[in-house]
User: What shape does this take?
Amino acid sequence: MAQSIMKTGTVLLLTVVCIAAGFASATASEEFHLVTPEEHTRERAEGQARESRPVSPAGAPTIEVVAPKDLSAITVPVSIDIRFTPQEGRQVDVNSLHVLYGWLEIDITDRIRKYCEVTAVGIKANKAKLPPGSHRLTVKIADTNGLVGSKDLFYHVVEQ
Assistant: This one.
C-alpha cells in the first residue's frame, strides 16, 4: 500500500511540474510589448537628451548584446539575447536586475521578468514588440559583492 501511495504521489508531482513547465514556455513564447506605444510617445514628448551614464566600476559584471546583432535597423517582433558576465570568483545577483526605458528611465523590469527568461547568464526574449523609432534601454545588474554593471543600449526599430 505504501508503494502505491508513493507512486501516486510521484505521478501527481510530475504532472504538476509538466503543467507548470508548459505554462512557463507558453508565457515566454507569446508576443509582448517591450516598450508600449504610450511609453514611446511619452518619452519623445518629455524626454530630455543627456549624456550616457559613467562607465561601470572596475570588477562589475559586464553586459553584452548577443542578439540582435545590428541595433541600427531592428524589425519586430524581435528576439533578444543579452548576456551577463561576472568577474572571476563572483556571481551575478539576478534579483538586482533593473531595465529602464529612455531618458525618463521608465522602469520596465517587471515586464522583462514576466515575458522573458531571466537567469544569472542573461536575458532571452522572443517576439518582443517595439514602436518604430529610436529607443534607449539601460540594463543594470549587480554581482554578489554589490558592484553594479550598467549598459545603455541604443537601437532603432524600422517600420515594416
Q: What stands out?
A: The longest helix spans residues 2-29. The CA atoms of residues 71 and 156 lie 6 Å apart. The first strand starts at residue 32 and ends at 33.
